[in-house]
Amino acid sequence: MSKVSLIRLSLSGFLVIAVLTQSANAIRTPVVLGGKSDIPNVQTNIEIQELGRYCVEQFNLMEESEQGNAASIANTAVLNPLNFSRVVSAQKQVVAGLEYDLRIEVTQPDGTSRMFDSIVFIQPWLHSKKLLGFTPVASPVY
Ligand SMILES: *[C@@H]1O[C@H](CO)[C@@H](O)[C@H](O)[C@H]1NC(C)=O
C-alpha cells in the first residue's frame, strides 16, 4: 500500500481563456469555454460508466507501478486493487478539452465498497486521456 499525495492540476473551478496562434497548416484545436454541468442519467450512460472503469484501472496500474508521479493522485493510502462497481454521479467541464468529475463506487480487496472522487481530463483530438485525481470520499454518500 502506498501513501500518495494529491497533485491536482488546477483545471476545475477556472475558466481557461486560450488564445491560439497557429500556423496555417496546423490542425485547429477546438477550444470552447464553459462552466461545470451535471451529467444526467449517469447510471445508464455507458460512456460515463466506461470512463469510471478506466479511472479505477488507471489508479490500480499506478499503484502497481509506483513510478514517477504515478502515485501522486490520491492523498490517502487505499487497499489495492480496487474493483470498479459504478459511477454514481458525474459532472463535466469544457476547458480546452473535457474535464469529468466522477463519483465512483469500487469494491476493495476485502470486499467492502468505497466511494472515490475522480477527475479525468480528455482531449479527443489529441487522443489524450489523463487521470488527474482519485481521492476517497471521506464519508460515503449513497
Ligand atoms: C475483483 O474482481 C476480480 C476479477 O473479476 C475477482 O476475481 C475478485 O473476486 C473481485 N474482488 C472483489 C473483492 O470483489
Account of the 3D structure:
Strand 3 and strand 4 (113-123) form a beta hairpin. This protein has a single domain, classed as Nuclear Transport Factor 2, Chain: A, CATH 3.10.450. The longest helix has 20 residues, at 46-65. It has one helix at residues 46-65; strands spanning 33-38, 83-95, 98-107, 113-123, 128-136. It is globular. The chain is α+β, with helices and mostly antiparallel strands and 142 residues long. Bound molecules: 2-acetamido-2-deoxy-beta-D-glucopyranose. Residues 83, 107, 109, 111 line the site of 2-acetamido-2-deoxy-beta-D-glucopyranose. 2-acetamido-2-deoxy-beta-D-glucopyranose is lined by residues 83, 107, 109, 111.
Keywords for this structure?
Nuclear Transport Factor 2, Chain: A, alpha+beta, binds 2-acetamido-2-deoxy-beta-D-glucopyranose, 142 residues, 1 helix, disordered N terminus, five-stranded antiparallel beta sheet, globular, 35% strand, single chain
